[in-house]
Structures are given as structure tokens and as C-alpha cells.
Design a protein that fits this description.
The chain is of the alpha/beta class and about 400 residues long. The protein has two domains: about 5-10 and about 275-405, Aspartate Aminotransferase, domain 1, CATH 3.90.1150.10; about 15-270, Type I PLP-dependent aspartate aminotransferase-like (Major domain) (Aspartate Aminotransferase, domain 2). It contains 13 helices and twelve strands. It has helices at about 15-20, 40-60, 70-85, 115-125, 145-150, 175-185, 205, 255-295, 320-330, 350-355, 360-365, 375-395, 400-405, and strands at about 5, 65-70, 110, 130-135, 155-160, 190, 210-215, 225-230, 300, 310-315, 335, 365-370. The strands form three sheets. Strands 2-8-7-6-5-3-4 form a seven-stranded mixed sheet, sandwiched between helices. Strands 9-10-12 form a three-stranded antiparallel sheet. β5, α6 (about 175-185) and β6 (about 190) form a beta-alpha-beta unit. α2 (about 40-60) packs parallel to α8 and α9 packs across α12. The chain is globular. The model has no long low-confidence stretch (mean pLDDT about 90).
């Protein structure tokens, strides 16, 4: 069976050029990048080249890039590292310290209700340690109003963390304006750019961000590698303790092969970003228009917002989204009901309910995310199998038939 993959927001394949760049560092150039001998210095040079490549993708300087294990670690380091540096005590995901018995004013974080769980769960963990968190609402398109950020700011606000692009809707937040507001109030601003890097242009200075998270496996690099941009001068405390790697921000022997892969993927993304965006946006639009034309009672969730060019979230009335995912998988098409990290969750997507959808409607929605390797023939295939699968499921859906009879 030929398979079509439309779940690139969950993960991407490793580019052949990326794999080729990585392979030497598993064997011939396997040395520790902290060693002072010649093999070690070759590994160090490869790490620093990758640092330059990642920095170039987001308009940063190489010394502002800290390599991590991925987006989740980067998000956690940004949140807990800022708290620890500001307050002067250990705020960590597993820390037992708390402000509950302290007379000092609790630090305050501003975030949104549609963040990835790496941010939401970190904020909830911080709340258990006495931190106050404001979860901002979004509009029906999934966008944060910058003025809600301004109104939420308090004297004790230490951090604003708003994602760049949403992983389920693709909605791109107005970070420039939010960043200006944070800068006016001298508050650190972090963004999770895991879903925007390689899809839309990023300039950390134009966005006014102090911290930015990246994940390699979302941009055609391997899993287990990521980066955190830390603007020069940002006070950020380390969360791990060990050696003095990466200016003390992130101890531990560097994953040279993974870092080289992330660097190469960032270089490819920077060069091909415009062409990739044009390619996937054309195919994404064709998919949306084709489904709207072929299937009644279909709606694009968040379709009026500025979006990443590869993402669409579609509501199919009268069916269970998970049932449709399974039906499509049996026909050779891979997609998802939302974030891969929430796979198997009983509750509907927190993102879709946040934009005002009922639980029933949220559960009837699917995400299709295209990638650099998606082809026109694959979209044609999707436009054949999706309407057929929807029709089959609606035919056995008592809910859909009841609604249709009532009309």
C-alpha cells in the first residue's frame, strides 16, 4: 500500500543531506567536543559551525544559541531559568521549594490558554511552587490580543511566554506587538517557535523576544536535539548541574551528531524557506478547497488567522475525529486529531475549545500538516479517500442522521 503522510507537525523525516552531515560524527569523528586534542577540536569546530547555522535561521548571534534535547527542555529552561534568576531560588519542574510560606510577593507569568503542553504543564508546575500565572484567552481564530497582555502585566510579572505558531491551528501570533509591550515594561519575553521555525521567517530582534525554543525533529533534523535562543544579557539560571559546557547554561557532553544535524537542517531551511512555503501553501489551499467542495458541513478551524503555510485544521460534522483518523490510516493516509503529545487523550483539544468550539465539534476536527516532500499526487489521493471515509462514517453515525433529519 502506498502511504501518504500529512502529519508533519508531529514530526518530519530526516533530510538525506542532514543524515549525510551527521554520519561522520558517529564513527570517524566521534571525539568529545570538550577534548583539547585534535579529534576533539574537530568535533568542537563542527558544533560551532552548527551554532552559526542555527543562529542564522533566526537572526541571532552564535553565542546566543544553547543546544538542548528538544523543544520541551528549551521551554522548561526558559520558564524555570528566568524564575530562578529573578527570584534567587530554585524553581524547577521537580523542585520542592515553594513561596507558600514566604512573605515575598509571588512572581507572575503571563501565557496563553493554547500553548503546547511543554509550556502549560511547566506553568502549572510553577503554580504549585507559589508562582502566579495568567492564562490569556484567544479569539475564535486562535489569536492573542496584545492588549490583553498589557492589561495582565503586574509589578511582579517576570515573564511573558506566548507561542509563535500554534501546533494545531497554525495560527501565527502577533509577537512583534506583544514583544514591544514586554520590552516597554522590561519583562522577559519567551516564545515557543517549534512550529514556526523553517515554515515562516523568524527574526528575534524584529519579534523582540529574549528567549526562543526550537526542536530539530520539526524541521527535518533528528529527534532528541533542539536549541534555546538566549538574548545576550538575559539572566537565566541553569537547571542542570555538571560541567561548564555551553557557557554554563547546559552542562553535559554535547550530542555532536545531533547538533550537526540540527545545524544542517537550519541551513537548508534558511535557503529553501520561501520556496517551501510557496509549495506547501499551494497544496494546503488545494486540499482545503477540494474538501470544502466535496464534503458538506465542513469548516476550517482558525482559517481566517495568519497561519503557517502547511497547516489546516478541519471540522467534519457528525463524526468522531479519532474514528476518521483510523479510517484514513487504513486507506494509507496519516493525519492526526491534534498534538502528537496528546495522543490517546480522552478530553477534546484544549486549543479547539479555547477558540469557542463545543466538545463535540472539537472532537470532530482533524489536523492535516504538509511538508517539504508533500506532492500534488498525494493531495489528489487525500481528496479521494477523505470524502469516501467521511461518507462511510456518517452513514453509520446516529448523531449525524438525527441532525440531518431535523434539518
Amino acid at each position: 500500500m502506498n502511504r501518504v503522510y500529512l502529519d508533519y507537525n508531529a514530526t518530519t523525516p530526516v533530510e538525506p543531506q542532514v543524515l549525510d552531515a551527521m554520519l561522520p560524527y558517529f564513527s570517524g569523528d566521534f571525539a568529545n567536543a570538550s577534548s583539547i586534542h585534535t579529534p576533539g577540536q574537530r568535533a568542537r569546530a563542527a558544533v560551532e559551525t552548527a551554532r552559526e547555522q542555527v543562529a542564522a535561521l533566526i537572526g541571532a548571534t552564535p553565542q546566543e544559541i544553547v543546544f538542548t534535547s528538544g523543544g520541551t527542555e528549551s521551554d522548561n529552561h526558559a520558564i524555570f531559568g528566568v524564575l530562578a534568576a529573578k527570584v534567587g531560588q530554585a524553581f524547577q519542574p521537580v523542585a520542592s521549594s515553594s513561596l507558600s510560606n514566604s512573605s515575598r510577593v509571588a512572581p507572575h507569568i503571563i501565557t496563553s490558554g493554547i500553548e503546547h503542553e511543554a509550556v502549560l504543564n511547566a506553568c502549572q508546575a510553577a503554580e504549585k511552587q507559589g508562582v502566579s500565572v495568567t492564562y490569556l484567552p484567544v479569539d475564535r481564530e486562535g489569536l492573542v490580543d496584545p492588549e490583553t497582555v498589557r492589561r495582565a502585566i503586574r509589578p511582579e510579572t517576570h515573564l511573558v511566554t506566548i507561542m509563535h505558531a500554534n501546533n494545531e491551528l497554525g495560527a501565527v501570533q502577533p509577537l512583534e506587538e506583544i514583544g514591544r509591550i514586554a520590552k516597554e515594561h522590561k519583562i522577559y519575553f519567551h516564545t515557543d517557535a517549534v512550529q514556526s521555525a523553517s515554515k515562516i521567517p523568524i527574526d528575534v530582534n524584529a519579534l523582540n523576544v529574549d528567549l526562543l525554543s526550537l526542536s530539530g525533529h520539526k524541521l527535518y533534523a533528528p529527534k532528541g536535539i533542539g536549541a534555546l535562543y538566549v538574548r545576550s544579557g538575559t539572566r537565566l539560571k541553569q537547571l542542570l548541574y555538571g560541567g561548564h559546557h555551553q557557557r554554563g547554561f547546559r552542562p553535559g557532553t554535547e550530542n555532536v551528531a545531533g547538533i550537526v544535524g540540527l545545524g544542517k537542517a537550519a541551513e537548508i531551511a534558511r535557503i529553501s524557506l520561501s520556496a517551501d512555503a510557496k509549495h506547501v501553501s499551494t497544496l494546503r489551499d488545494n486540499l482545503e478547497l477540494g474538501l470544502l467542495d466535496r464534503i458538506p458541513q465542513v469548516r476550517i478551524n482558525g482559517g481566517l488567522a495568519p497561519r503557517t503555510p502547511n497547516t489546516t485544521n478541519i471540522m467534519f460534522a457528525g463524526i468522531e475525529g479519532e474514528a476518521l483518523v483510523i479510517a484514513l490510516d487504513l486507506k494509507g493516509l496519516a493525519c492526526s486529531v491534534g498534538a502528537a503529545c496528546s495522543s490517546g487523550a480522552v478530553e477534546p483539544s484544549h486549543v479547539l475549545t479555547a477558540i469557542g468550539l463545543s466538545q463535540e465539534v472539537a472532537k470532530s476536527s482533524l489536523r492535516f500538516s504538509l511538508g517539504r516532500h508533500t506532492t500534488e499526487s498525494e493531495i489528489d489521493f487525500a481528496l479521494e479517500v477523505i470524502p469516501a471515509a467521511v461518507a462511510q462514517l456518517r452513514a453509520i453515525s446516529p448523531t449525524f442522521h438525527k441532525e440531518a433529519t431535523a434539518r
